[in-house]
Automatic annotation (TrEMBL):
Top-level taxonomic group: Bacteria
Localization of this protein: Cell envelope
Name of the protein in its database record: Substrate-binding domain-containing protein
Family: Belongs to the bacterial solute-binding protein 2 family.
Keyword list, A-Z: Signal
UniProt-annotated stretches for the region Disordered: 35-60
Protein source organism: Streptomyces polyrhachis
């Protein structure tokens, strides 16, 4: 977890997001998980027992954001754990036309399975259709294509769930306070994902009649925009008890603005799961007390699913012979109580 060039960065996270979902996704039905300490970084562990060789093509957008860079790193790292997997990874582009050309190259190479995180889900739907029509199954990662015919399986995060769980966390913290006030630092308002996150947050707050949302600004998933928009919020709403920030990268900027203003009189909840956010939560020396996950480890699970698909296997822990058509990951809340568990999954 952009708009079109920065694009729908996380369009449409592992429950107890990054880790427990790994238990579900990484083992194929005929195999057992290997006790591999290195594999604990993004899941319970992938089965390294060699099977049918699988060539996986991976096409993602340009890594212009910490989360997107971690997507690529997770894909490479997971593929490297399998002796039977060859990964063909493209350079990545935020230009749909350029990414379409990269996907065509992977189709021409006759890869066994394609994992695609599209620069723009709607614009790249035809690329997914071309691959499927060529007999290459597609794992659609995160930003969803417009047609279910363009992919075999979709895996991604729950933007509505991010807002819902952020709202619930704040609601529980403030439920004993009469006349509590909250604000929101959103992402790019033109994105459906931003609207979903805000809707989830607003819906959660409906369960806490003592809480009123009194301010909102939209930033751009960058440190600079986070600092600028948080400064505006602090000036516009001088008194509030908590706020939710949609993105941990822009949250770094928000924390700078808060520090410059000398404010310590509210709690902050972030979004996505960056290493900086985890470190701040663990240190417990800022207003940031929790973050709601949208972790890039979903790329590692996409590789697991692609490998299972290429080998004709299902998913461990399920009775079916086939992998699921949709995998929506859970948006866990990470606070001081559980942050050590998630530290290895934090993106930089």
């Amino acid at each position: 977890m952009s708009h079109t060039p920065l694009t729908s960065r996380r369009n449409v996270l592992f429950g107890a997001a990054a880790l427990s979902a790994g238990t579900f996704l990484t083992a194929c039905t005929s195999n057992e998980a290997k006790d591999d300490p290195a594999a604990q970084e993004v899941g319970q562990g992938a089965d390294d027992k060699p099977g049918k060789p699988v060539t996986i093509g991976f096409a993602g957008p340009q890594a212009d954001h910490g989360w997107l860079n971690a997507i690529n790193d997770n894909a490479r790292s997971r593929a490297g754990k399998y002796s039977d997997v060859t990964l063909e990874i493209t350079e990545g582009s935020n230009d749909p036309a350029a990414q379409d050309g990269q996907i065509q190259t992977l189709i021409d190479k006759k890869v066994d399975v394609l994992v695609i995180l599209p620069a723009d889900g709607k614009a790249m739907t035809q690329a997914g259709l071309k691959a499927m029509q060529a007999g290459i199954p597609v794992i659609n990662l995160d930003r969803v294509f417009d047609s279910q015919q363009a992919y075999r399986t979709w895996i991604g995060g729950d933007n509505y769930g991010m807002g819902l769980n952020a709202g619930r966390y704040i609601g529980e913290k403030l439920k004993g306070k009469s006349g509590a006030k909250v604000i929101e630092l959103a992402g790019i308002d033109s994105l459906e994902l931003t609207r979903q996150r805000t809707q989830g947050f607003d819906d959660a707050l409906k369960n806490y009649p003592n809480i009123k949302k009194v301010g909102r600004q939209a930033a751009e998933f960058t440190v600079e925009s986070g600092q600028r928009k948080m400064t505006d919020l602090l000036q516009a709403v001088p008194e509030f008890d908590a706020f939710w920030n949609h993105d941990d990268d822009q949250g770094d900027g928000a924390l700078q603005a808060i520090k410059q203003a000398g404010r310590e009189d509210f709690l902050m909840v972030g979004g996505a799961g960056s290493r900086n956010a985890f470190d701040n939560i663990k240190a417990d020396n800022t207003v940031l007390k929790a973050t709601v996950l949208y972790p890039p480890t979903m790329a590692a699970s996409a590789i697991d699913l692609a490998r299972a698909l290429g080998q004709g296997k299902g998913v461990g822990g399920m009775a079916e012979f086939e992998i699921p058509a949709f995998v929506t990951l859970y948006s866990a809340v990470v606070d001081k109580e559980n942050v050590d568990r998630y530290l290895p999954t934090g993106f930089k």
